[in-house]
Amino acid sequence: MTTGTKKVNASVGGTAPLRNVTLCLQLITRLSERPAHLPGIGVFYGPSGFGKTTAAVHGAQRHNAYYVECGSSWHASSLVDAILHELTGHPSKGTVATKVERIIQLLAQDPKPLIIDEADHLVKKTMVDVVREISDKSAAPVVFIGEEQLPQKLIAFERAHNRVLEWVPAEPADINDAKSLAKIYVPELAIHDDLLKHIVETTDGITRRLVINFESIRQVALQKNLSKVGLSDWGDHDVYTGSPKPRARQLRRRAS
Where on the tree of life does the source sit, at the highest rank (predicted)? Predict the structure, then answer.
């Protein structure tokens, strides 16, 4: 794995990794250990904010895999340049076809998993076909990480779609995930289960929103000089859900 891969903290000490980290690790393992006659593409998908990128990067670190995050403006040439740079650590010259052959050669020699994050940006025929060809000819495991509709988007590309061995949906965070995240982001605080449960349920288990709320809990603890915070300490504070707050009635009247 090259030095360009992001670093994440998906577990703390003896705490179990987040559930989506576990799901992603299991997917990579199944693809890596599959019989040779089976296809080698896996898809890990789910709504924004579920921690899929954290899971993907952690999976790349654990499996010594290659990791590429697609950009919204990419074309086939951008994709192969990024993959080849991840494999070799330096830019390369040549045509797209030449670079694809080089990628296939390198992965066939050392078939580490290739993880492609933000794979929704891949859903253009030339790019999907490039990845399918790399997967077919190198036999290296390939994992697509994308949003909730990625499986439906891939249906249009039958030759790639029917090479998917595993479809794994990401899961919303549960209270155990919340406990693990709290140890990462507010390690100085003990947050009681009743407050964690309230935050998890109100945010629909969206990891990114949990983290935002942990900062709010930290502020409440500072204001009240607390090292332990429960639902009674939280009181009537709003839980951040991502929805904008409505303006106060007085402001609406003033604007009219």
Answer: Bacteria
- Cα 220 to its chain centre, rounded Å, is 30
pLDDT at 88 over 80: yes
Predicted local distance difference test score (pLDDT) of residue 90: 85
Q: What is the CATH number of domain 19-169?
A: 3.40.50.300
Q: So what's the pLDDT on residue 250?
A: 52
The size of the chain, in residues, is 256
The secondary structure of the chain, three-state, reads: CCCCCCCCCCCCCCCCCCHHHHHHHHHHHHHHCCCCCCCCEEEEECCCCCCHHHHHHHHHHHCCCEEEECCCCCCHHHHHHHHHHHHHCCCCCCCHHHHHHHHHHHHHHCCCCEEEECHHHHCCHHHHHHHHHHHHHHCCCEEEEECCCHHHHHCCCHHHHCCEEEEEECCCCCHHHHHHHHHHHCCCCEECHHHHHHHHHHCCCCHHHHHHHHHHHHHHHHHHCCCEECHHHHCCCCCCCCCCCCCCHHHHHHHC
Distance between CA atoms of 243 and 247, rounded to whole angstroms?
Answer: 12
Domain boundaries, the chain: 19-169, 175-234
Considering the entire predicted model, what is its pTM?
A: 0.86
Q: CA-CA distance, 43 to 29, in Å (whole number)?
A: 13
- Domain 175-234: give its CATH architecture: Orthogonal Bundle (1.10)
